[in-house]
């Protein structure tokens, strides 16, 4: 990111909303707007004219909260003030017929011009062209006002023209989107004269806009890409009635009318990312807010009407005088119904969701975020990430053809649907059915209707295993070996280590037992539903609150219903593979060990296999936790300690149990994937911070952690190496990354890749990784990448010993100046290569040990094997 000082820094952070405020305040006229490959309209600075005054940066509403905005944020930022509400339409038949909805905005502007309260209205019009694009007008005639009717749904830097207004000193009315009035608020604090010139603020409701590439895409869909100059309207009710279809055609000729829903179908594909993190749908800074009458009863559904929210006394005076003058036909409307129709509760929820995911990507948030975070609640949903990613990638395409090809792929996969438009239960149902449709089993009746025969063992004709209620019938008829359902316990999506262990299990077991299905139990408060669905994992019906199990609720639904939605019960599980990583021991309290002991005892009575895959364990100090561990050992089939220290902790409780063994962390067999656009030459050294180094260490060590990392950064920069930061532990690690940036007094690139396989691929390309995340270290060392580590438990010491480089684990409270020497040694071609050869040799040995562990596990659980029969 450029040094804060001009608008280019805002553009780089994707925070530009194209309002035009920066161009208006630039006295050197050094700022113009340029269309990007993805169709954004971003400001560009002519460096020859720029005086580096910094006004363009200070006026940006993403950076500065204006005085008027601050007042709105402290009251009702999502709904805004409402003195009264109306619904109706323009009395002028020409205005109404040419309008998008009710024509109220145009009628008000003409009333103001006729009464000489203003000399012009700042509006936007869609100019015919090749391609057509919106333009900003200072409209002073009826013809110009009529030419600006209908919504543009595209970036329009309307505030840019206020520079001309200021020079002419003419009073105007401004018709704008919320972002325009946000920019006007900051402009008014810088230049008070603008407040006097903008007499009326008429706001339009804005769910979001589309980039210019959406226009070009729809023109191509209409078959008019080579037609030269065309006129374009996103909504024209003259063709098929309100609310109107997309209409495209050469001027003077019969236009092409696209099918219903053509615009909505592509909204997610062309939504600017910045729109996702804008809170102000209802244009709360306007005098009057005008919108479609969604939610209101008894409105004109054929010709269309508009709803009006009066926000200021000036707005109330205007609307009443225009109605009294016969310009408007109005009737009272209910504000609550308007808010319900505009789905403001959903907007509030989705704004918080998108901002949290945005923040999770390591990106800066707009200045208004802190004012709203405390009055909104974050409810995780994978939808936010799924919708943000294509928006952030719009400008990454090399051409419009490449962009449109990507959009076509997205539409074919169903990725552009307005999921936010569906009711919550519909969204869950549809996502679940799409993700798990391959796991559904047709009923016998369905099979008879289609002429297909239902096999006796309950398997589907395509060879997939039976599910739900049919699974139990099949097992009764054929014996336990007919199919298998495996629960993966302790994995998740909260950090990349937990997710990597999940991938490791699937990669190891699926090829060996292709008939097996896999299930996971949800974790309360974690956004894992859609993530589980994408991996083809069934959903285990389980819920426990305050020590009370509510699992019986799942049993209330028939097996056929559970099967339909891919939900399984605990009693249907055959094998439990626990991959908790580090959950059983004093550090996590007694509860987890006691609960696992209780569960394993119950599972064993039901004939299930219970295996704890390699993990750190112990110590176990209290009598209760030691007794629980004994019960766990008695009822588990296999327990793998990840290191000799963990094995010793277990052995201290139960001497040399035969089912407890040692094996290394099993993610070392997982192969990473390097992103296509990854530039390894610019990312030689990776630093992975961890909040655990301050949460789980002594206060002395915790306070030295960030200074330790800062020392690493400064030493690397002195060598001419710019490190990057990688978030491996989820949102909790971001504060540590930001503290490090503050400690070195500059921005460092923060990578927040979500795919754990891509993260492993990225780490494999580095020359050095400095980390405090266990599985980040495993991912690096297992690929022969040298690491300098700082840890908070015994598992780090044994890990570095296993990979033959214990000297690279640093006790940060005793590091002193040694860290610089250690970095020099690792990056030295001679000394570093010697250490690397030891690591690679050790890595191969660890992979062999992991492969041996999997052979033993698969022999234990694989249907028909001797061990499987003997232990059942």
Can you summarize this structure?
The chain is an alpha/beta fold.
Record the SSE blueprint:
Elements: H1 8-12, H2 21-25, E1 31-35, E2 41-45, H3 55-58, H4 67-73, E3 84-90, H5 93-98, H6 104-114, E4 120-127, E5 133-139, H7 142-147, H8 162-168, E6 172-176, H9 178-190, H10 193-197, E7 198-204, H11 212-221, E8 231-236, H12 237-240, E9 245-249, E10 256-257, H13 262-265, H14 267-270, H15 273-276, E11 288-291, E12 306-310, H16 313-324, E13 328-332, H17 335-341, H18 344-360, H19 369-373, H20 382-392, H21 400-412, H22 424-436, H23 444-449, H24 468-478, E14 484-489, H25 496-512, E15 516-520, H26 529-534, E16 538-540, E17 544-545, E18 548-549, H27 552-555, H28 559-564, E19 567-568, E20 575-578, H29 591-605, E21 609-615, H30 623-635, E22 638-641, H31 644-653, E23 660-662, E24 685-688, H32 692-695, H33 699-718, E25 724-726, H34 734-744, E26 750-751, H35 756-764, E27 768-771, H36 774-781, E28 786-789, H37 794-802, H38 818-827, H39 829-861, H40 866-871
Parallel strand pairs: 4-6, 6-7, 7-11, 14-15, 14-20, 15-16, 16-19, 20-21, 21-22, 22-23, 24-25, 24-27, 25-26, 27-28
Antiparallel strand pairs: 1-2, 3-12, 3-13, 4-5, 8-9, 9-10, 11-12, 17-18
Helix pairs in contact: 29-30, 33-34
């Amino acid at each position: 990111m450029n040094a804060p000082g001009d608008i280019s820094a805002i553009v780089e952070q994707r925070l530009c909303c194209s309002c035009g405020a920066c161009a208006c305040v630039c006295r050197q006229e050094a700022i113009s707007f340029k269309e990007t490959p993805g169709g954004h309209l971003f400001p560009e600075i002519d460096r020859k004219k720029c005086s580096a005054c910094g006004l363009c940066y200070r006026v940006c509403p993403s950076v500065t909260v204006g005085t008027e905005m601050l007042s709105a944020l402290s009251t009702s930022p999502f709904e805004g003030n409402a003195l009264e509400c109306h619904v109706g339409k323009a009395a002028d038949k020409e205005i109404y017929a040419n309008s998008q909805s009710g024509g109220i905005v145009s009628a008000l502007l003409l009333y103001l011009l006729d009464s000489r309260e203003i000399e012009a209205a700042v509006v936007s019009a869609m100019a015919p062209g090749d391609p057509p694009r919106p333009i900003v007008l200072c409209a002073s005639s009826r013809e110009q006002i009529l030419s600006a009717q209908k919504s543009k749904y595209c970036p329009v830097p309307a505030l840019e023209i206020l520079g001309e207004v200021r020079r002419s000193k003419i009073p105007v009315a401004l018709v704008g989107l919320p972002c325009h009035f946000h920019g006007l608020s900051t402009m008014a604090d810088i230049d008070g004269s603008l407040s006097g010139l903008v007499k009326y603020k008429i706001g339009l409701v804005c769910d979001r806009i589309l980039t210019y590439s959406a226009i070009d895409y729809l023109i191509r869909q209409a078959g008019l890409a080579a037609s030269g100059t065309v006129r374009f309207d996103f909504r024209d009710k003259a063709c098929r009635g309100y609310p109107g279809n997309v209409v495209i055609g050469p001027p003077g000729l019969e236009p092409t009318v696209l099918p219903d829903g053509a615009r909505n179908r592509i909204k997610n594909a062309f939504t600017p990312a910045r729109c996702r993190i804008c809170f102000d749908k209802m244009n709360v800074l306007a005098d009057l807010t005008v919108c479609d009458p969604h939610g209101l009863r008894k409105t004109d559904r054929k010709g269309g009407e508009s709803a009006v929210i009066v926000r200021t006394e000036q707005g109330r005076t205007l609307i009443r005088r225009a109605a009294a003058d016969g310009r408007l036909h109005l009737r009272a409307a209910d504000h609550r119904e308007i808010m319900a129709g505009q789905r403001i509760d959903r907007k509030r929820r989705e704004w918080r969701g998108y901002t949290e995911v945005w923040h999770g990507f390591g990106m800066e948030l707009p200045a208004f975020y802190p004012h709203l975070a405390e009055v909104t609640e974050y409810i995780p949903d994978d939808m936010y990430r799924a919708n943000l990613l294509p928006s952030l990638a719009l400008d990454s395409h090399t051409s419009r053809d490449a962009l449109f090809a990507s959009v076509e792929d997205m539409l074919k996969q169903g990725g552009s649907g307005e999921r936010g438009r569906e009711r919550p239960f519909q969204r869950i149902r549809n996502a679940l059915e799409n993700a798990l449709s391959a796991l559904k089993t047709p009923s016998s009746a369905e099979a008879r209707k289609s002429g297909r025969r239902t096999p006796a063992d309950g398997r589907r004709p395509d060879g997939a295993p039976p599910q739900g209620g049919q699974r139990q019938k099949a097992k009764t008829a054929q014996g336990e070996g007919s199919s298998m359902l495996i629960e993966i316990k302790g994995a998740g999506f909260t950090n990349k280590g937990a997710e990597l262990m999940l991938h490791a299990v699937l990669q190891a077991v699926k090829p060996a037992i292709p008939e097996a299905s896999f299930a996971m139990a949800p974790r309360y408060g974690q956004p894992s539903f859609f993530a589980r669905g994408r991996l083809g994992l069934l959903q285990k019906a389980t819920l426990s609150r305050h020590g009370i199990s509510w699992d019986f609720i799942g049993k209330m639904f028939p097996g056929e219903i559970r099967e339909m939605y891919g939900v399984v019960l605990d009693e249907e599980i055959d094998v439990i593979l626990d991959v908790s990583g580090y959950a059983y021991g004093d550090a996590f309290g007694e509860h987890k060990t006691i609960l696992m002991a209780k569960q394993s005892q119950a599972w064993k009575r039901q004939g299930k296999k219970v295996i704890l895959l390699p993990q750190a364990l112990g110590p176990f100090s209290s009598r209760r936790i030691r007794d629980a561990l004994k019960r766990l050992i008695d009822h588990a089939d296999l327990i793998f300690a990840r290191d000799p220290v963990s094995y010793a902790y277990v052995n201290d409780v139960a001497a040399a149990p035969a089912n407890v063994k040692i094996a290394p962390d099993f993610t070392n067999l997982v192969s990473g994937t390097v992103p296509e656009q990854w530039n390894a030459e610019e990312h030689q050294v990776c630093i992975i911070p961890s909040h655990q180094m301050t949460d789980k260490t002594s206060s002395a060590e915790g306070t030295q952690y960030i200074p330790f990392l800062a020392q690493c950064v400064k030493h690397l920069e002195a060598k001419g190496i710019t490190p990057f930061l990688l978030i491996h532990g989820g949102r909790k690690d971001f504060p540590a990354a930001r503290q490090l940036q503050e400690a070195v007094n500059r921005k460092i690139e923060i990578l927040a890749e979500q795919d754990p396989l891509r993260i492993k691929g990225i780490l494999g390309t580095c020359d050095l990784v400095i980390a405090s995340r266990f599985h980040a270290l495993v991912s690096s060392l297992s690929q022969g990448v040298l690491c300098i580590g700082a840890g908070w438990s015994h598992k780090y010491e044994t890990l570095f010993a296993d990979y033959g480089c214990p000297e690279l684990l640093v006790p940060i409270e005793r590091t002193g100046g040694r860290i610089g020497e250690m970095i020099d040694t690792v990056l030295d071609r001679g000394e570093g290569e010697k250490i690397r050869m030891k690591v690679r040799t050790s890595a191969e040995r660890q992979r062999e040990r992991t492969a041996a562990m999997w052979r033993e596990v698969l022999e234990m659980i694989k249907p028909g094997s001797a061990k499987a029969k003997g232990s059942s």
